[in-house]
Amino acid sequence: MEFYKTDIADVPWDRLDGFSDRMFSQRYEWLDFVSKISGGKIVIATLKDGHKVVGYFSGILFHRFGVPILGSPFPGWTTTYMGFNLQPDVSRVDALMALKHFAFKKLGCLHLEVLDRYLTMDHVADLDVDVVVEPTYVTPLHLEEEQIFASMSSACRRCIRKAEKNGVIIEEAAPEGFANEYYDQLIDVFEKQDLRPPYDRQYVQTLIDKIHPSGDALLLRAKTQDGEKIASAIYFGHKEHSLFWGNGSLRSHQKLRPNEALHWYALRYWKKRGVKYHDWCGPNDYKRKYGPQLCQVPRVRFSRYRALGWARDAAFRLYTLPRVIKRQRFQKQIKQTGENNSANSIGNANATNP
């Protein structure tokens, strides 16, 4: 099998969207968003077995310090899974090795990263590749609604009921003005941890502008009975998978439990639309109360030169070190005071930097 680059003007987007393993982050709207925020170019490659088309690859070609990199995706893009769309009988391992040849020999890349939702640890166990395990929590939505609710901790169920008793109203929000509302609430939560959000206000606006028209975005708002906006959340989904992207809330109203109510609404929303799995985008402790299952997905990395992989890891550690230290201090404070941490936005940082 071999990959061939497809000109963007010739990409059969409707055909790609018809694949059962298609993710929202592989669709044109999301790729267009990532190309804008990364300064890269969309790459769609067609996988052929002889003359037969058996699948596709989606990614972004960009440069970092002059080094050509193919990301599918790359850390910092607020994007989780990309990778392949393949016919059911096509090996993902074979596709992965064909992609390595395509990236290095045809595109001239020096580094390649792939995080494919359908690639498993068993797939890569016997491969001589650099693998980073990406753990995350996933809620199976093919279960009955009562089963999903029962799988949550008793404390979480009480919070959802408390929100309803307190008159918290959850509504699907229009895109106009939502980015500012969300970001203001996000800042309020991050300030509690002596942190700043890992992206700016315009970033959220661009995300909503690009993705909302596709129908893949769910923007939720929590209000009091008096109409005060106290929390918000952003989710994305397409076909079998949905994902929690980010959540902001006002600390002064967290006692009303708006965050639990937002997530419960989102789970039911995606279930009604036929989604089978809801990804919480990270294994943060506060997400366990929603009763998800732990899932491990391999991020596969190839470098033409070993030093590039080392440099990549060192740069990422330097970038995240200040945030990690502050997070640890905050978690220590939580344990010492016994303060409720269910609404914190640390998971948002994971969601945006897998």
N/C terminus separation: 30 Å
In total, how many beta strands? Answer: 13
Shape: globular
What structural class is derived from the secondary structure elements?
alpha+beta
Figure out the total of helices.
11
Residue share in β-strands: 25-35%
Question: How much helix, percentage-wise, in residues?
Answer: 25-40%
What count of structural domains? 2
CATH architecture of the largest domain: 3-Layer(aba) Sandwich
| Average of pLDDT | 90
Walk me through what this model shows.
Strands 1, 2, 3, 4, 5, 6, 7, 8, 9, 10, 11, 12 and 13 form a 13-stranded mixed β-sheet that branches. The longest helix is centred in the last third of the chain and has 32 residues, at 306-337. The chain is built from eleven helices and 13 strands. With 354 residues, it is α+β, with helices and mostly antiparallel strands. It folds into two domains: 2-133 and 299-327, Aminopeptidase, CATH 3.40.630; 138-295, 3-Layer(aba) Sandwich (Aminopeptidase). The model is unreliable at 333-347 and 349-354 (pLDDT under 50). The chain has helices spanning 13-17, 28-38, 92-106, 121-124, 145-150, 154-165, 178-192, 201-211, 258-272, 306-337, 346-352, and strands at 2-6, 41-49, 52-64, 67-72, 83-86, 111-115, 130-140, 169-172, 217-223, 229-238, 241-249, 277-279, 293-303. The radius of gyration is 21 Å and the shape is globular. Helix 2 runs antiparallel to helix 8, helix 6 (154-165) crosses helix 9 (258-272) and helix 7 (178-192) crosses helix 8 (201-211). 42% of the residues are buried.
